[in-house]
Amino acid sequence: MNNEKIISILNKKLNLEKIYATGDNNHIKIIAVGDIFKGISQVKRQQIIYAPLISMITEKKIHALSITTYTTEEWKKKQKNLS
């Protein structure tokens, strides 16, 4: 499973402002940014990302995921802190 395919699937299924996917089939790191995460726990945020990818996980096309999520405001703060 290539990273562009993962990004495409998540963009089609979720209303995200930004999505980044890096890594290989053994371990994919996803960073997702969007206001769909406002007021939602970290566990629920991860479930939102897992849902469109679950068939690829169960078919072992993706072995492991590392997911980090941000609201648009959280992402802006993180970017500002990195500057």
From TrEMBL:
Coiled coil: none annotated. SUPFAM superfamilies: BolA-like. It holds the Pfam family BolA. It comes from the Bacteria. Belongs to the BolA/IbaG family. This is BolA family transcriptional regulator. It comes from Buchnera aphidicola.
